[in-house]
Design a protein that fits this description.
This protein has 2 domains: 24-121, D-amino Acid Aminotransferase, Chain A, domain 1; 126-279, D-amino Acid Aminotransferase, Chain A, domain 2 (Alpha-Beta Barrel). 28% of the residues lie in helices and 28% in strands. The chain has helices spanning 26-30, 48-61, 70-83, 126-131, 154-165, 208-220, 231-234, 267-279, and strands at residues 6-9, 12-15, 33-41, 44-45, 90-97, 114-121, 133-139, 170-175, 178-182, 186-191, 194-197, 224-226, 239-244, 248-255, 258-259. Strands 7, 8, 9, 10, 11, 12, 13, 14 and 15 form a 9-stranded mixed sheet that branches. Strand 11 (194-197), helix 6 (208-220) and strand 12 form a beta-alpha-beta unit. The longest helix is centred in the first third of the chain and has 14 residues, at 48-61. The N and C termini lie far apart (66 Å). The structure holds pyridoxal-5'-phosphate (PLP).
Length: 291
């Protein structure tokens, strides 16, 4: 089933040899791939090992055989920073797809994964970190394998867009009223000195920052309970926050136009932010802790 040579692209007709993108690519056509976003501070990766481990877990879950082992991926990522003389705060985006092959749902017999990674600057969102952000609640309509960091992000994209259209930063996702996580971050509720968050099962992405938070709570002697909280619990919360590689540990101060406690970032959130800055060796632009 060979493809006829002339391809329609936008409103122009082009010979397929001249196309700038690989149109028969499984990531593009099926979302058949995985990715990672890793934070960089002062030109150094933060939580690199955790991210590389998760990349391999995701690959295994969708039966992609990476042509590298963990050490080789780590070395390539480190080399990428060096080659770009990266010394600032930023992030790397790394994507692995099953590869390029004639379009067919079943896996191609022999195909090499397509892999790319790029680095860009990313300043810390000091305004959100200091003062907190607003969120909406939104139905979680995703599939049952959210622990895989897959390219299939349409429900996440639509939820985050709805948040933006409502003047908010994030969408807190819930399945039948039980909060799973946010559209691009993990979600936590603080009540009576204890932190509650959804268990690390198939319904959420196992965040690398969440893993760091687990460490911080042990150091700080703050109970972290892996127990989901409900949308109704939010109105009674003492504190609410989210975590991700790009958003770090960000307080949520308003949900669906309702203030959380006094509408200011809470004490436990501040303690965790402080622990994060120490762990990530952040020396500049530190959060002014006001609580
Ligand atoms: C749906 C979802 N949950 C949680 C996270 C947080 O993961 P991490 O802490 O590894 O960045 C992300 C990050 O992109 C995400 O997309």
């Amino acid at each position: 089933m060979s493809i006829y040579p002339i391809i329609l692209t936008q409103s122009k007709f082009t010979h397929q040899d001249n196309l700038k993108y690989p149109f028969e690519e499984r990531g593009l056509q099926f979302g058949d791939g995985i990715y990672e976003v890793i934070r960089i501070y002062h030109g150094t990766y933060y939580l690199l090992e955790e991210h590389v481990d998760r990349l391999f877990r995701s690959a295994e879950a969708i039966k992609i055989q990476l042509p590298f082992n963990k050490k080789e991926v780590t070395d390539l990522l480190l080399e990428l920073l060096k080659k770009n003389n990266m010394t600032t705060d930023g992030k790397v985006y790394m994507q692995v797809t099953r590869g390029s092959a004639p379009r067919d749902h079943v896996f191609p017999d022999e195909v090499m994964p397509n892999i790319y990674a790029y680095v860009q600057d990313q300043v810390r969102n000091m305004e959100g970190l200091e003062n907190g952000v607003k969120a909406i609640t939104h139905r979680d309509i995703r599939w049952e394998n959210c622990f895989i960091k897959s390219l299939n992000l349409l429900p996440n994209v639509l939820a985050k867009q709805t948040a933006k259209e409502n003047g908010c930063y994030e969408a807190i996702l819930h399945k039948d009223g039980l909060v799973t996580e946010c559209s691009a971050s993990n979600a936590y509720l603080v009540k009576d000195g204890k932190i509650y968050t959804h268990p690390s099962n198939n319904n959420i992405l196992h965040g690398c920052v969440r893993m760091a938070i687990e460490r911080f709570t042990k150091q700080l002697n703050i109970p972290l309970i892996e127990e989901g909280f409900s949308v109704e619990d939010i109105s009674l919360a003492d504190e609410l926050f989210l975590s991700s590689s790009t958003s770090e540990i960000t307080p949520i101060v308003k949900v669906d136009n309702l203030e959380i406690a006094d509408g200011k970032p809470g004490k436990i959130t501040r303690q965790l932010q402080q622990a994060y800055e120490v762990d990530a060796s952040i020396t500049e632009n530190r959060i002014k802790h006001t609580v």
